[in-house]
Amino acid sequence: MDVDICSGCLLYPVIFILGWKISEQAISCAKQSFIDAGLKGNDMGRADRPLVPESLGLISAVVFLVLAVVQIPFLDSNVDLTLFLGALLTITSAAFLGFVDDVLNLRWRHKLWAPAVSAVPLLTVYFIVNGETSVLLPKFLRGFDIKILDFTLLSKGGILQLGPLYYCYLLALIIFCLNAINILSGVNGLEAGQTVIIGLGFICYNLIELYNGKLSEEHLACHYRSLSLIVPFVGCVFGLVRKNWYPAEVFVGDTFCYWAGCTLATTSIIGRFSKTGILFFIPQIFNFVYGLPQLLHIIPCPRHRLPRFNSETGLREMSTTRVKWSKLNVIGKFWVTAGKLTGTIWTKDLDDDELELNNLTNLNLTLKIVGPVSEEKLTTILIFQQILGCVLALFIRYYVAGLVY
């Protein structure tokens, strides 16, 4: 394993730099072709609203897939190529579906379930290689022995055998990750920027586990397998960030959100840290829960909830929506009232029955707290939140999880 560690120290930095430079250069060469093909849109965050090529996440995805395949002869000898190639097939499917979304502009109800199609290759391979389908329960739930027929669901050691339900969990994880990146978006550099931070968090976690010397050979191989995906991925996305940062030369498109979310989910699955992996999505989970009333149409939800651009000041301001108090159900009224009391929802009474409130996204909440700011500053604040979220994830994993598990 020492030889494998040394080879990894040489391979991973090279793969990262290649992904960064090739992705950045390929995007520069391809962006005009995307404009010519009609994949373009106006940047609504600038006064002159220039045309910007869209869906350039596809280029970074292609570079990533090429690098991931090219590095196979140099991978750690313990890496399970069957599972690794299954993961690549799933990621390829996700990138393809994302590009289809960019071209056909799928409805949200299709966006929620389309990722399930891309998950099929990984779940199939995971089943073939007899992947782990049990989970360790918290200490307070241990000491039980539950059986249905001859199948042990829960042993006294605290191991819960989920069986087929585990595949439902993995499917839900992939669907969430794909949509989480897509929902927390809308300003230059945010989608790619948050993805780089989460990817770096994954790399840090893998390296900590590799060098603590307490894992079996099997679990060490899982972390090498995870690194073999996440390192070229972060390198390629870093090249994309440099082109997508304000003022953006290119837009990443839904192609990127599908590809990035699927890669992050897949990396945690084949690295066997799916529970830990979800901790790195704390800002995305908060954004999802905070906006759930609008996503479920308990509170009116406009098609676009992006922060508003003030052309006079050049700053981003929180966007709002209008609601009739009498038309809100009990849950909607409770959510708005609780938001007003906690300071997480801005409201303005328009008349006896109508009020105005901010759209329920983390971007608008951040603008409510800090006030109108430039788009670049808003993105920087949100990226800093992501860094704090990843630090918190590592803290929970190494200092809190031990108290529970």
Account of the protein in words:
With 405 residues, this protein is mostly helical. The chain folds into two domains: 2-128 and 178-279, no CATH class; 281-405, no CATH class. It is built from 13 helices and eleven strands. It has a three-stranded antiparallel sheet. Helix 3 (81-104) runs antiparallel to helix 8 (253-270), helix 4 packs across helix 5 and helix 7 (217-244) packs antiparallel against helix 8. The longest helix is centred in the N-terminal third of the chain and has 35 residues, at 2-36. The protein starts with a helix and ends with a helix.
Question: Structural class given helices, strands, pairing?
Answer: mainly alpha
Q: Portion of residues in helices?
A: 55-70%
The termini sit apart by: 28 Å
Give the biggest beta sheet. 3 strands, antiparallel
Strand order of the largest sheet: 9-11-10
Q: What is the number of helices?
A: 13
Strand residue percentage: 5-15%
Q: How much is the radius of gyration in Å? A: 22 Å
The total domain count is 2
Overall geometric form:
globular
Low-confidence stretches: 148-152
Q: What is the average of the pLDDT values?
A: 89
Secondary-structure element string: HEEHHHEEEEHHHHHHEEEHEEHH
- Beta-strand segment tally: 11
